[in-house]
Amino acid sequence: LDEAFRRNPGYDLRSMLGGTRTELEGIMELARDTPSLMLQAVPVLFLPHDRNAATSILYSAKQSNLLYAVLFADCKLVTHVSAKRHPLQASDLLLMINFVNKAKQLRSQETWTPLCLPGFNSTGFLHAYASFVSKSICLLLLSSGESLDQFHFCSEAKAKICLQLQTSGLTDKIESMSYPAFKPASCEAASSIHLIYRSLKSGQYFETDIQDHAPLHQGQDARKRLMSRYINISERLHASNRQSIDLIAPLEPAEPNKKGEAESTGQIWDVRDCESVLALFNPSQFEIYATFHIFTTPNQAMACVLRFAAWVRNNKNDLFMVKEA
Prior knowledge:
This protein is α+β, with helices and mostly antiparallel strands. The protein has 2 domains: 22-178, Beta-Lactamase, CATH 3.30.450; 184-239 and 264-318, Beta-Lactamase (2-Layer Sandwich), CATH 3.30.450. The chain has 10 helices and 11 strands. The protein has helices spanning 2-7, 21-33, 36-39, 51-61, 90-102, 148-167, 170-176, 220-237, 298-314, 316-319, and strands spanning 42-43, 66-73, 76-82, 111-115, 126-132, 137-143, 192-199, 204-207, 266-271, 276-282, 286-292.
């Protein structure tokens, strides 16, 4: 689209956008209802002890003519394997999540379709084989080939993956973890209403459910309002003048960047009518957004968030896909 506008500023977009309404609406929903686009990070399924086993199953079925094999559950990443020279970008994984969420035909049939992943190549397409292997679990196999033989190869690979997932008990285990409700109290953060933790190294994030004792924050409209507030705070947190933010308490210094320079950390404590929000940013570790009741003090909020961050670090192998195959 950008190239088309550069060549002709008066270009009529409708011819290029034909048939994309559902996908565009899905992207707008991601931006409005989730922190995914704000963070440019992927939600990951909580999966204690078994993520490596799922990765090994995908890896055993991946051949040289497959660039990526990706497993999602309830529109969250379970695991993926990638070509060594082409690691998957978070933005491309979000496009896959949107595709899986909006392509209703996937639940009843195998699909073979071109899919553009700008992080891989913004001027071309890969071909994606997509199929649900159970009620909540979807498999994507992506190849540079487009022949019918490649489709049949992917279909056979899917059958092998399904069999291994079922015989190992992973299908049932992943299904059982598709809808866990992590309240802040179960994450060492009982005094908070809602928390988001983005792992900067992995490009993935973990989000709690809304705390039960927060009636003003229940429901879809309240969530949209909270997401909008996070976006506003995120823009301030990442502004060029974030060094001037008054620190509530000192954070650990960030690791030096590639130039050997120590990047600055940032904090925002934002108080409004319905709640207070604490946002923390450490360029080498994390980005955190935490919502509290209006009477919570900054020091109480900071203590709660640091406990939450320690809990995430202690459970990172279950919360995130730490190593890419």
